[in-house]
């Protein structure tokens, strides 16, 4: 009877276990949809590697688009957008930032949006890309904003897709959290917690089987042999996000800026650390996106009422059609 029960249990558990991939600290074992190149450079006294995608269109239109991923994303998660933009003539460069995905994960590094922007500039100089548009999603929206502020002569158009950082969370009452606490919390990351969060934030309570690929991409690094360095880099970037707001500088943007916002998004870093009666005041995207658009001298705000934090994945056709209609040609 025991052996029969064991066989039955294994029949149900083996398929689940088979999907629980363990990836290395630089996403070794997870295949990207495009060829990955690596840019070696020195930063803060150490040699680092930045993984990146550089996809050329079959029929170039002379335009380049730099895609900046969010905190829980990678260059690979831009897959659909890369395919769409290259089909429409754009050269697309999509890096994995230092500390993320297939790029180096240093054990000592001062993470700042200024530094990540500088790293990105070094990559673009290496690729001889002088003028370009930049699109940032989630945390990538904060980085794209900082990059545009630092490089107004190079960035032709700024596009932000549900960027975080449209509000100053510490100023709104989110308590400061020590790095050690962020680290311990990151070590608990698993597929179930990622999926639960993404369903309710990224996809407005809906779920499609194709989303699981991106859950496994992230969860696999936290199951693998280098999960400690992955968690530490995650902690460092959480601290960067909370302590380096860009919301006060949107008024200084000099280029045309397009905001594409899924209004069902409610992302706010540290929301769960605040008192429950204050949480509803954070991550109100219909409100804060309009407030930010009003600050930017040349802004176009387009909202998707039924979509969440990742409209480019949740409703790719609708999102990409809206995107291409609002991209400037230079």
Describe the protein's architecture and organization.
By secondary structure, this protein is α/β, with parallel strands linked by helices. It has a single domain (2-167, 177-267, 288-325), classed as Alpha/Beta hydrolase fold, catalytic domain (Rossmann fold, 3-Layer(aba) Sandwich). 39% of the residues lie in helices and 16% in strands. Strands 1-2-4-3-5-6-7-8 form an 8-stranded mixed beta sheet, sandwiched between helices. Helix 3 crosses helix 4 (139-150) and helix 6 packs antiparallel against helix 7 (212-223). The longest helix has 17 residues, at 2-18. Mean pLDDT is 93; it is low at 1-18.
Helix and strand topology:
Elements: H1 2-18, E1 37-43, E2 46-55, E3 64-68, H2 79-87, E4 91-95, H3 113-126, E5 132-137, H4 139-150, E6 155-161, H5 179-186, H6 191-201, H7 212-223, H8 227-243, E7 257-262, H9 276-279, H10 285-295, E8 299-304, H11 311-314, H12 316-325
Parallel strand pairs: 3-4, 3-5, 5-6, 6-7, 7-8
Antiparallel strand pairs: 1-2, 2-4
Helix pairs in contact: 3-4, 5-8, 6-7
Domain AB hydrolase-1: 64-270
Protein name: 2-hydroxy-6-oxo-6-phenylhexa-2,4-dienoate hydrolase
GO molecular function, one term: monoacylglycerol lipase activity
């Amino acid at each position: 009877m025991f052996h029969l029960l064991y066989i039955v249990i294994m029949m149900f558990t083996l398929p689940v276990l088979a999907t629980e991939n363990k990836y290395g600290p630089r996403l070794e074992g997870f295949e990207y949809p495009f060829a990955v190149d690596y840019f070696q450079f020195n930063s803060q006294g150490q040699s680092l590697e930045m993984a990146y995608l550089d996809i050329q269109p079959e029929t170039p239109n002379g335009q380049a688009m730099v895609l900046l991923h969010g905190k829980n994303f990678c260059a690979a998660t831009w897959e659909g957008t890369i395919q769409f933009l290259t089909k429409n003539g754009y050269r697309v460069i999509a890096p994995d930032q230092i500390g993320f995905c297939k790029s180096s994960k240093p054990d000592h590094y001062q993470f700042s949006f200024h530094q990540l922007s500088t790293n990105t500039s070094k990559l673009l100089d290496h690729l001889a890309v002088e003028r370009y548009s930049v699109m940032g999603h989630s945390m990538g929206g904060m980085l794209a904003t900082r990059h545009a502020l630092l490089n107004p002569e190079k960035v032709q158009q700024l596009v932000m897709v549900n960027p975080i950082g449209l509000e100053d969370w510490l100023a709104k009452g989110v308590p400061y959290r020590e790095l050690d606490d962020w680290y311990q919390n990151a070590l608990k990351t698993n597929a179930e917690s990622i999926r639960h969060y993404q369903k309710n934030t990224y996809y407005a309570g809906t779920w499609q089987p194709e989303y699981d690929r991106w859950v496994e991409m992230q969860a696999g690094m936290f199951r693998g042999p280098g999960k400690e360095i992955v968690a530490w880099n995650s902690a460092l970037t959480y601290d960067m996000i909370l302590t380096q707001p860009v919301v006060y500088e949107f008024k200084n943007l000099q280029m045309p800026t397009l905001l594409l916002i899924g209004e069902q998004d409610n992302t706010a870093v540290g929301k769960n650390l605040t008192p429950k009666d204050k949480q509803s005041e954070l991550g109100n995207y219909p409100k804060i996106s309009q407030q930010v658009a009003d600050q930017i001298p040349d802004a176009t705000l387009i909202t998707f009422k039924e979509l969440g934090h990742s409209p480019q994945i949740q409703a790719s056709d609708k999102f990409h059609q809206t995107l291409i209609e609002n991209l400037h040609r230079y």
